[in-house]
């Protein structure tokens, strides 16, 4: 996807040309944005609202995602996943501490050396992710989170 194809529906603060490596996109509303195939290495997404954003095949290596929000809306008490949020995304070395990753589809994502300290992983799909060297201290999940093989939920003691 080229920068002119990125969809950013809820803000005038950011244009498609701002979606690039090293950008400062902190505290920006990128909810429902389509950033498929974006290259956001070394980008600051601290406190950014990425609720419902599509980040499929997006590279956020070495990106700051502290307190970023990734959750989906739950209308009528029913969880709706209109699309995958970050399948196969490169999140290596990303700082996802305290990030809201509820209901996020992280299937096959590369989280090598990522910091997930105190991230909310409730109902997140973490199957087949690479957590080599990743930090999960105090990460919050529940029995419904799909954890990768060999990773135990600290609350339930189950994989």
Describe the structure.
Residues 1-20, 137-159 are annotated as: Disordered. This is Low-complexity protein. Pfam families: Pentapeptide (PF00805). InterPro entries: 5peptide_repeat (IPR001646), Pentapeptide-BTB/POZ_domain (IPR051082). The protein has 159 residues and is low in regular secondary structure. The protein has one domain (1-74, 81-147): Pectate Lyase C-like (3 Solenoid). The chain has no helix or strand. The termini are far apart.
Rg estimate, integer Å: 15 Å
Kindly name the structural category: little secondary structure
Total number of distinct structural domains: 1
**What is the β-strand count?**
0
InterPro entries: 5peptide_repeat, Pentapeptide-BTB/POZ_domain
Pfam family, one: Pentapeptide
Region (Disordered): 1-20, 137-159
Protein name: Low-complexity protein
Please render the helix and strand layout as text:
Blueprint: no helix or strand
Protein name: Low-complexity protein
Pfam families: Pentapeptide (PF00805)
Region (Disordered): 1-20, 137-159
């Amino acid at each position: 996807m080229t920068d002119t194809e990125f969809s950013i529906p809820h803000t005038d603060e950011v244009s498609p040309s701002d979606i690039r490596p090293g950008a400062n996109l902190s505290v920006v509303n990128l909810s429902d944005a389509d950033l498929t195939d974006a290259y956001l290495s070394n980008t600051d997404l601290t406190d950014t609202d990425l609720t419902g954003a599509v980040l499929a095949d997006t590279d956020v290596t070495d990106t700051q995602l502290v307190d970023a929000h990734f959750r989906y809306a739950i209308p009528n008490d029913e969880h709706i996943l209109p699309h995958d949020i970050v399948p196969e995304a490169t999140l290596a070395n990303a700082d996802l501490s305290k990030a809201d990753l509820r209901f996020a589809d992280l299937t096959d994502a590369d989280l090598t050396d990522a910091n997930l300290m105190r991230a909310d992983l409730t109902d997140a799909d973490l199957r087949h992710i690479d957590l080599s060297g990743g930090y999960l201290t105090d990460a919050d999940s529940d029995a419904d989170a799909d954890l990768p093989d060999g990773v135990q939920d600290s609350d339930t003691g189950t994989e």
